[in-house]
Amino acid sequence: MLHKSSCTTYNSTMATPRGTATRARILQAAAELLADRNPRSLTVSEVARAAGVYPNQITHHFGSKDRLVVDAAFVRFLRDTTRLQSAGRRATTSAGFRDVLARTALAMPSTSLLVTALGLAQDDDVLRDRTSTLLAVLFRQSERWLERVVADHGWTSERGVARDARTFWSAVFGAVLFATAGAVGGPSDVDVAATVSITG
Predict the structure, then answer these.
(1) Contact criterion met (CB below 8 Å) for 113 and 44
(2) Domain containing residue 141
(3) φ, ψ of residue 125 in degrees (nearest 5)
(4) How many separate domains does the chain show?
C-alpha cells in the first residue's frame, strides 16, 4: 500500500554529504542483516563491521541500536510493500483486491520483523515519537494509493480510504503480533480483508 518513503535519521539536521552517506551505509547494512535475524539479537558491532564504520558512529547518527533497528525494519518493510502494489494491480474485483491485500501483507517476511521492531519502542520516548512518525507516513501514503486505486476502478470506500488504510495496517500488525506471541491459530485466521470497506 506504500509507494516509497525516506527513513530520515535522528541527527539529520546540519548533516554533511559525508554524514548522509555514512548514515545511509549504516542503515543499509542493518537492513540487510535483519533479513534473517531477530532484531533483539542484532549487535552494534555487527552493524559497524558490515557498514565499515566505528560503533560510536552508529550511536552518533541514530542515538541507539533500537532506533537504528526501527529505521532498518521500516526500510525492509517499505521495500516489500511493492508486492502489495503488484498484487493489487492484478485484482479485477473489489473483493479480490481486499483478499489479495490481506494475504500479501500477512505473508511478507518484513511484516513480522517490523512488528518486533515496533515493540522496542515501549520504554523509549524518542523511539515512540519516531515510530509514530513512520506509521503516520505509512498510513498517509497508503491512503493516497488507495485513493488512486478506487478512482481508477470506479470503486467506493464506505468508511473512507483514510480509515481503511489505518484499520488495515492495524489489523495486519495485530494479527502478526498475536501469532508471534503464541496465540492459537495464525495470522490467516484473522479476517484482515474485512477491515477494508472498498466495494464496487
Answers:
(1) no
(2) 17-199
(3) -60, -40
(4) 1
Q: Give the DSSP letter string of 121-172.
A: GGG-HHHHHHHHHHHHHHHHHHHHHHHHHHHHHT-EESS-HHHHHHHHHHHH
Q: Return the SS3 of 93.
A: coil
Residue type, 184: V
Longest dimension (CA), the chain: 55
CATH, residue 59: 1.10.357.10
Distance CA 194, CA 172 (A): 11
> Which amino acid belongs to residue 117?
A
Cell of 133: 512518525
Residue with cell 484482515: 192
User: All 3 cell numbers of residue 63?
Assistant: 542515538
133-189 pLDDT, tens digit per residue, is 999 999 999 999 999 999 999 999 999 999 999 999 999 999 888 877 665 555 555
